Fold this sequence. Notes:
The complex is a heterodimer.
Chain A lengths: L2 H25 L6 H7 L14
Chain B lengths: L3 E2 L6 E2 L4 E8 L5 H12 L4 E7 L4 E7 L5 H11 L3 E4 L3 H38 L5 H22 L1 H12 L6 H20 L7 H36 L2 E5 L5 E5 L8 E4 L9 E5 L2 E4 L1 H4 L5 E3 L4 E2 L4 E2 L4 E5 L7 H15 L6 H26 L4 H15 L2 H20 L2 E3 L4 H6 L3 E4 L1 H5 L5 E2 L6 H11 L5 H7 L12 E3 L3 E6 L2 E6 L16 E8 L2 E8 L6 H10 L3 E5 L4 H11 L3 E3 L4 H13 L4 E4 L6 H6 L2 E5 L4 H6 L2 E3 L5 H36 L5 H20 L34 H8 L1
Parallel strand pairs in B: 1-8, 17-24, 17-26, 24-25, 26-27, 27-28
Antiparallel strand pairs in B: 2-3, 3-5, 3-6, 4-5, 7-8, 7-9, 9-15, 10-13, 10-15, 11-12, 11-14, 16-28, 18-23, 19-20, 20-21, 21-22, 22-23
Amino acid sequence: MNVLLYLVPIALLLGLTGLIAFLWTLKSNQYDDLDGAALRILPDDDIGRTNEGA
Amino acid sequence: MAEIIDFSTFVERKPDGTAHMTLAVEGVGCAGCIRKIESGLNKLPGIVDARLNFTQRRLAVDWRDGEIDGARIVKTLQQIGYRAHPFAPERAEADETRQAKWLLKCLAVAGFAAMNVMLLSVSVWSGNVSDMTPETRDVFHWLSALIALPAAAYAGQPFFHSALRALRARHTNMDVPISIGVVLALGLSVYETAAHAEHVYFDSAIMLLFFLLCGRYLEQAMRRKTRLFAGNLASHKAEFAHRLDGKGELTRVPVAALQPGDRVLVRPGEVIPADGSIIDGVSEIDESLVTGETMPRAVAAAAKVYAGSINFSGALTLQVGAAESGTLVDEIERLLQKATEAKSRTVRLADRAARFYAPVVHATAALTAIGWLIAGASFHDSIVTAIAVLIITCPCAFALAIPVVQVVAAGQLFRSSVILNSGDAIERLAEVDTVIFDKTGTLTLPDPEVDAASIDLAMLERAARLALSSRHPLAVALARRARQRTPYPGASEAPGRGVRAVIDGQAARLGSAGFCQTADAVACESDASFIFFACGGETVRIPIRQSLRPDAVAVTQALAARGLDLIVLSGDRPEAVGPVASRLGIRQWHASLTPAAKIEAIELLKSQGRSVLMVGDGLNDAPALAAAHVSLSPITAAHLTQAQADAVFLGDRLAPVLRAIVVARRARSLMKQNLALTVIYNALAVPIAIAGLVTPLIAALAMSGSSILVTLNALRARLPMRGERISEMRVPAMTVPMAEPEAKTRGPMAPAAVELMS
């Protein structure tokens, strides 16, 4: 049963990482415009350009 | 004409010298639009950032103050091809957004905890039947406690807060038994863990919270979506006013920016932007949105006018002012207040169930403990069994049974162009047995239509094309019939009288009888207004009347077929109401009613035990809408009226009224089914719990099983209904396909509506 000593903490840590990642996405407003995000990847006018902000 | 437009009420200035404005944008429908709008604006000098939220169809713009202004941004968008309306987000909307984020956080925490506790619980369950040592089990239980306790303390807040609020107000809701159940389950589990017991309920408690938060979040998301949509529509409707300053210069300002005492110029064909009194000018105004009366009223200096009326013939200067006592608006406000106070508080189905449920559950648990004590069990075992009863009856399914149906039904109504203002409207709509319609703007379309039956088509086309040169509302209605959309060259308008032009070498005039030099009397039919057209020695009289909504006859018949009593209560004249009622086959109709008389009629029906649905749009209907059991109004309704309605419907058709009732009735029967399902579940599970046979495994299975069952049942509301195809019903031939390049004066922006709903 010694294996539990590190398996259980690893499992919890993985779960916790997921939770923190989700809370971070929530905090940075990534769910505000779900439909827009799906469309914004379509135009490829950014190819060939460098350092284009916004 | 170079006008100054002032958007400053919508601009938010920041200390670092930048300004921010939010705009609701119409016509956004594809990926290209995002790029076009954003890059188009970012090219302008002075713009810091422009970002379009595609989901909400809203654009956020930041710019350096002084280098560019709001008007320029709106103009640029117009040049790119999008209409944009400055937008001031309501406080309620911001609150809802914050609430949604909080619920999502709670949901995430509960989800994380439920999964990890389950990981430990499943190990314990399988360990219990194989070779797990008690020490390992204890470690797992303590680990579960470590995860579940803080998670429940955080994720349970929405329920704990609501339960405390209810208890403080000395009544109970569904959150009270939920909170008690969760707290007891956790408490018992900690105690049992300390006592090295075999069974703990951390997983049940945290899973319960997870399921309930899912339901709560969905419900909230639906509410937020409708509010957002309504906010956009309101901004699309927002009108502008021409404000006169001290030097007599005109500025175009949003109506929201008008202050009492401002002087406003209203040109012919424009909507009067605010309540006030006329200080200069003579005209006729159409007050059908205010009183339901379709005959124009002649007004001159010192007359009181109300927002939403349409100015017909002459330019008016008006002083914006809060209505003095004794005016119509004042009377309506007073009636409204009374009606809202008198409105009996309907108890929602869920609350009624909760009121009954909580005492029964708690009594059962107490009796279980006492029963086992009498039967000779130890004090510890009796309490454990009693708490198991509480856990198994914890109203997970109960709390989901109604909200989930509500969410699904509200989503369906949303797709059929009905936007709910209040959450419990669905239940009340289902109880309706009498439908009262207002006439003007509700049964009839808000904009008048040409009755072309008796007119030569060539003459009509010429008249319609000539009408393109006029801004008079009757001419605007006629102009919609023009196939050729270019005005005649050289057409000139005599304000308040008519337009003249030379057509094919012949002098032509369109306007009043006097203007066209005809002696035709206007007496015969009084439910129509007339516009005259003289060309080449021939004169025709073109009747323009309020036409019924295209599917009004079919919808009223369908409503009557469903056993609903239909009544028309109108503020218009009897000779205008009678024909409409008889065409719709409605026998009960009353005309020339004051707002107070409408309320009296509703009160009378209520005292006979009827549940009344009021459908109305005028300012004069607002008190009646508040007094009725449930109310609907078209999106074209007066602002005050719309605020009173439980739901608003879009478009030219009346079908949403029927659809709302049908969907609500089905939703109600599903709610009842769901309640029955949970009762059956409890009837099966409670005896097992009382017998002391519930293990955590059984509790987990029973609770998730019943929750999934009611959710699936609620989803049945989305299945197509038997024989219900009203949305595809054929449009009767009385509507003509009309070219409509520009938005109507009062109409909603239908394409935008369709986009957002897709």
